[in-house]
UniProtKB/TrEMBL annotation:
InterPro entries: Poly_Biosynth_Transport. Its main location: membrane. The chain crosses the membrane at residues 41-66, 87-111, 123-145, 166-188, 297-316, 336-356, 368-386, 392-409. It comes from Trinickia symbiotica. This is PST family polysaccharide export protein. Residues 1-19 form the signal peptide. It holds the Pfam family Polysacc_synt_3. The keyword Transmembrane applies. GO terms for cellular component: plasma membrane. Keywords: Cell membrane, Membrane, Signal, Transmembrane, Transmembrane helix. PANTHER family: LIPOPOLYSACCHARIDE BIOSYNTHESIS PROTEIN WZXC (PTHR30250:SF10), PST FAMILY PREDICTED COLANIC ACID TRANSPORTER (PTHR30250).
Length: 415
C-alpha cells in the first residue's frame, strides 16, 4: 500500500503544473514539429528556396536582436512579481518595438534583395515583417507564467502554435506556394500563440498606452540587450558572409547543416533553459547553495549526454542526409560534422546562461559573447582563406569554446 501511494505521489508530482515533464513534452512536440516541417519543406523545395527563406529570417533576427528590450528576462528574474500596471507598460514597449521592427524590415527589403542576390523575392522579404509585429502584441503575462513555473500552461500554448505552423507550412509547400509556405506558416503559428496568451493567461494587463513604471527592470535588462547585440554578430555573421559571397543556394546548404545539428543538439538545451532559468532563480532566491548544487548536476548530465550524441551524429552524418534530405543536400555533410560540435557547445552555453542570469550575473554572458566575437574576428579571416566555408564553421567552434570556458569560470566565482 505504501509503495502504491509513493508511486501515485511520484506520478502526480511528475505531471504537476510546474514539473519538468511538461518542458520535456513541449521540447519533444515543438522541436519534433519544427524538424518535420523544416526537413520536409527542405526536401520539397531544395537549397535555393531554403536559402531565400533564411535571408528573410536573417533580417528578422538582426532587427529583433538590435531592439531586444530584455524585459522578458527581467520580469522572470525580478524579486517581486510585476503589477498589472507594470505589465501594461511592458506590453506598450513590446508593441512599439514590434511596429518599429516591422516597418524597418519593409523599408530595408529592397536593399536585402540586392545584397543577397534574391531577384524577384522582394515580397518574401516584406512578408517576414509580420513576425515581429505579431510577437509584439502577445500578452506579457506569458512572462509571469514562466516566472511562476506554470510549464503545463506554456506547453499547451507552444505546442498548439507549433502544430498550426507545421500543418499550414506543409500544406502550402505541397500546394506549390514555394518559400512563402514557410513564412506564412510561421506567421499563423505566432498569431495563434499571441491569441492564446490573451485568451488563457491571467492577470491580463490593461490595454492602454503606458510608458512609465518599469525603470527598475532596466539595470538588469540592459545586459540582456547588450548580450543580444553581441549574439547577433555571433549567430548571424557566418550566414551574412555565406549569403553575400555565395548566394541563396549555398546559404541554403550551410543553413540546413546548421539547423539540423541545432535541432538534434542545441534545441533540447535551449528549451530546457526555459525550465532551468526560472527554477534556478526560484532556488537562488531561497537558498543559493542549493541552486549551485542543482546547477552542477544538470551541467554534468549535459556534458556526458552531449559527448555521446556528438560522436554518434558525426558517424551517421552521410547516411542521415542521404535518407532524410536526398542527394541534393550531400554537399552539406562536412559542414554538419563541424556543426554538431558547435551545437553541443551551444547547448552547454544555454545551461550556463540560465544559471548566470538566475543568480543576477547577466553581464557574464555578455562578456563571454564579446570574447567570442574577438576570437571569431581573429580566426575567421585566415581560416576562410585556407579552408573556405568550413573555415568559418571552425572559427565558430573556437569562439564557442572560449565562451564556455569563461562562463564556467564565472559560475565558480558565483558560488
Amino acid at each position: 500500500m505504501r509503495a502504491g501511494r509513493v508511486a501515485a505521489l511520484s506520478v502526480r508530482a511528475s505531471l504537476g503544473a510546474s514539473a519538468a515533464t511538461w518542458v520535456l513534452l513541449q521540447q519533444v512536440a515543438v522541436r519534433g514539429l519544427v524538424a518535420i516541417k523544416f526537413l520536409a519543406i527542405g526536401r520539397i523545395l531544395g537549397p535555393a528556396a531554403i536559402g531565400s527563406v533564411s535571408v528573410a529570417l536573417l533580417a528578422v533576427a538582426i532587427a529583433e536582436s538590435l531592439s531586444d528590450t530584455g524585459l522578458a528576462q527581467a520580469v522572470i528574474q525580478g524579486r517581486e512579481a510585476p503589477t498589472r500596471d507594470e505589465l501594461s507598460a511592458v506590453w506598450t514597449t513590446l508593441v512599439a518595438r514590434g511596429i518599429f521592427v516591422g516597418l524597418l524590415l519593409v523599408a530595408l527589403a529592397p536593399l536585402m534583395e540586392s545584397q543577397f542576390h534574391m531577384t524577384g523575392e522582394l515580397l518574401l522579404l516584406q512578408l517576414a515583417a509580420l513576425l515581429p509585429l505579431i510577437r509584439g502584441i502577445a500578452s506579457p503575462t506569458y512572462f509571469v507564467i514562466q516566472r511562476e513555473r506554470r510549464f503545463q500552461h506554456i506547453a499547451f500554448v507552444e505546442i498548439a502554435a507549433a502544430m498550426a505552423d507545421c500543418s499550414v507550412g506543409l500544406l502550402l509547400a505541397l500546394g506549390g506556394a514555394g518559400a512563402y509556405s514557410v513564412l506564412i506558416g510561421m506567421a499563423l503559428g505566432e498569431a495563434l500563440k499571441s491569441t492564446l496568451t490573451w485568451a488563457t493567461m491571467t492577470p491580463r494587463p490593461p490595454l492602454r498606452v503606458r510608458w512609465h513604471g518599469i525603470g527598475h527592470y532596466v539595470a538588469f535588462s540592459r545586459w540582456i540587450w547588450a548580450s543580444s547585440v553581441v549574439n547577433l554578430v555571433l549567430n548571424q555573421f557566418d550566414k551574412i558572409v555565406v549569403g553575400k559571397m555565395l548566394g541563396p543556394a549555398q546559404l541554403g546548404a550551410y543553413q540546413m547543416s546548421s539547423r539540423l545539428a541545432q535541432m538534434l543538439l542545441a534545441d533540447a538545451a535551449i528549451a530546457m533553459s526555459q525550465y532551468l532559468f526560472p527554477t534556478f532563480s526560484a532556488h537562488h532566491r531561497s537558498d543559493a547553495k542549493k541552486a549551485a548544487r542543482i546547477f552542477k548536476l544538470y551541467l554534468a548530465a549535459a556534458v556526458v549526454g552531449l559527448a555521446v550524441v556528438v560522436l554518434l551524429l558525426r558517424w551517421l552524418a552521410a547516411p542521415l542526409f542521404s535518407l532524410v534530405l536526398g542527394a541534393q543536400w550531400m554537399s552539406a555533410v562536412p559542414l554538419f560534422r563541424i556543426f554538431v560540435i558547435n551545437m553541443s557547445l551551444g547547448a552547454l552555453i544555454a545551461v550556463l546562461v540560465a544559471y548566470l542570469r538566475a543568480v543576477g550575473d547577466a553581464k557574464a554572458a555578455t562578456h563571454a559573447s564579446v570574447m567570442q566575437v574577438i576570437v571569431l574576428f581573429s580566426v575567421v579571416p585566415p581560416a576562410t582563406h585556407y579552408w573556405g566555408v568550413t573555415g568559418i564553421a571552425w572559427g565558430m567552434t573556437a569562439g564557442l569554446g572560449t565562451a564556455v570556458a569563461w562562463m564556467l569560470y564565472r559560475t565558480v566565482k558565483a558560488r
